[in-house]
Amino acid sequence: MKLQFGMARPELDYRHRPAVFGIAERDGLIACVQIKRDASPAYYDLPGGAIEGEETEAQALAREFTEETGLSVSAVDRLTEASQYFVRTDGEALNNVCAFWIMQIEARHPERQQEQDHKLVWLTPQEALSKVRHDAHAWAISCWLRQKARHQETAFLAEP
Questions:
Q1: Contact 143, 135 (CB under 8 A)
Q2: Residues 39-85: pLDDT tens digits?
Q3: How far apart are CA 31 and CA 103, in angstroms?
Q4: Do the beta carbons of residue 100 and residue 145 sit within 8 Å?
Q5: What pLDDT band is residue 122 in, cutting at 50, 70 and 90?
Q6: What are the backbone angles phi and psi of residue 40, rounded to the nearest 5°?
């Protein structure tokens, strides 16, 4: 059984949408996108989105990161998965079936960013936990923080 976030409204037909999102860290901050459309308030997501055609999760995530942030990234490790019911700003009801990956930043290419309503922002993990719009994204950030703490603890215990 997969972890499911959000509440499905019975009057809506939710489209199953395979998706992938990533956590990329730089100097203790994580990459997020601030999305501002029309007169709606801005919201925050982890970079990522739908898997298209025959793409692998890693391929989709590399493409989405570049389109949304201008960052070139590579997949390091699949962290967790969770689904999220939500209604898009255009009214479409989706159930994002999400994989979450830890990403390595390779380069910055601002000219390759295609989604002009997305702005790359660097947030502390605590800020990101409180600002991301989807509980599934907050769950992934929490999993990442726990994994990071375990690695630091293991490294500390291994020191002579």
A1: no
A2: 888 999 999 999 999 999 999 999 999 999 999 999 999 999 999 99
A3: 10
A4: no
A5: very high
A6: -70, 150
